[in-house]
Fold NAD(P)-binding protein.
Amino acid sequence: MLSEQTCNELNNQSILLTGASGGLGKAIAIQISKYCTPKNLILSGRNIDTLNDIANECRQYQKQKQKDHQDDNEGVHVIPADLSNKESVQKLGESAIQLCSSSSSPPSSSGGIGSSSSCCVDILINCGGISSRSDFIDTKLDIDERVMQINFFSGASLAKILVPGNSKSNNSSTSSSSSKIIWISSVQGLMGIPSRTSYAASKFAVQGYCEALRGELASSNISVHCVSPGYIKTNLSLSAIKGDGTNHGTMDDATSNGSDPTDVAIEILNTVCGVAGIDIIGGNKNDFVVAATLSAKVAIWLRLLCPGLLQNLLVQRYEKAKKKKALLQEEEEEDVVVAVSDKKID
């Protein structure tokens, strides 16, 4: 469950969460609603029906904690958005500002959009994303661009929209809770895995952006946290995009055996919102979070200490996957030939 320290950081805060319609994003939304009382919890994703179902579940948790609440809808909101569309991302940021600025009222269809200078979004959680499954030579450039837009540029755009209204000096901040940018990256943003070139590039971009942004905002009341989960048991591989733009449509073994999204959500929130300790190289432990298994953490250390060994292991994994794929294709082709032959005989 979420710690008391975590809830103290999230209570009475306005939170914008992308990727909330499933997987890790849904788990984060449920955990926040179950244990904390945010002023506004804004859920965003593409599937409006799924978002509404999750929002209703969140409202039930909130209602249990606030028996005298008169408006079940207050506090949990839905703003659908397509992160692959720049205009949709811009509208999401502006709508979130307007919603929070109007004290928990839904955005008005006739009213003006709130400016960044009046921003009331305290916490941005960039959780929306897409994975890729194809060799670089088989991947169209527009697919690379699409993955980068969803995984990186959308989050950067939201930060640019929301940060100006929150970037006050630490000295002038009267709140015990600082504003936060929590960006869900990946272990694959720390080491590139073959057949994931687009995905790795987007997640490496997130890592570098967060490091640079953290330095720029160091004197403000905004903290920047980059989270690198390992494999999580979600639909990420099923919905992954191939080089030609079609869905991968397959649950990878590593994903099906991945961590439970609820466990990962709890680890992320408790670590990011916990008391900031100092790591062995002098940085805050909750600025850079690796929410992954021991084997993934070992691989990260191998990249730093024995990069050649890690590279050899990744090449072996890649070659093994290629052989498995080739065998499956041969079996499928044989099945087609047999089916055609049987049809001719009939």
Summary: The radius of gyration is 22 Å. The chain has a mean pLDDT of 84. Residues 306-346 form one domain.
